[in-house]
Design brief:
Blueprint: H1 6-19, H2 21-32, H3 37-41, E1 48-49, E2 52-55, E3 64-67, H4 80-87, H5 98-111, H6 122-136, H7 139-146, H8 151-154, H9 156-171
Antiparallel strand pairs: 1-2, 2-3
Length: about 180
């Protein structure tokens, strides 16, 4: 399972924001709320109320209600969603196709110097789950955040963290000198 590191996320969101602020906010919403691309594309203005986003999940996941992130760093600030939602209360906020978003993310990832294997929209969901695991070590927190009904769906993120720890350990190993 691929995910983006914090550094890669900063680079990706900087490129996206520099090119198209609407693309940037669509990607940011996907990251922060652990959305599939279809879930992000289905957000309507009326799904945002009182600084919260009501997420209608797909694939039998549970619906979730998340506070929007208001941040002094514009790369990670969702406040532009409020104005967008007010202007489009009965319409979807992002009127694109899944395929279009895939092309957009691949383009921005390439410009940000991110490996092509990580250049797909679903990597944003994987990334927030790994970051949540690293911050909380709480499987239930991740499960609730992304609406998984089964903890087995969430366990994959622990494996990704364990794989990274193994790679870091190998990179730091000493093998006792030259051959």
């Amino acid at each position: 399972m691929e995910y983006l590191t914090r550094d890669e996320l900063v680079r990706l969101f900087k490129v996206a924001r520099d090119h198209n602020k609407l693309h940037h906010i669509a990607m940011l919403v996907g990251l922060l709320h652990g959305l599939r691309v279809s879930e992000m594309l289905a957000i309507r203005g009326c799904d945002i109320c009182d600084g919260k986003l009501s997420v209608k999940r797909l694939k039998k996941s549970r619906a979730t209600l998340h506070a929007l992130r208001f941040d002094s760093d514009p790369l990670f600030d969702e406040s532009p969603l409020l104005k967008l939602a007010q202007a489009n209360p009965d319409a979807t906020l992002f009127r694109w196709s899944r395929q279009y978003m895939d092309i957009v993310l691949k383009r921005y990832a390439a410009l940000a110097g991110i490996h092509p294997s990580k250049a797909h929209y679903h990597v944003l969901k994987h990334s927030i789950c790994v970051l949540l695991w690293q911050e909380t070590h709480d499987l239930n927190a991740i499960q609730d955040h992304v609406g998984h009904r089964s903890s087995s769906s969430t366990l994959v993120y622990l494996r990704a963290d364990a794989a990274q720890k193994a790679q870091t350990a190998i990179a730091g190993m000493s093998f006792g000198g030259a051959l």
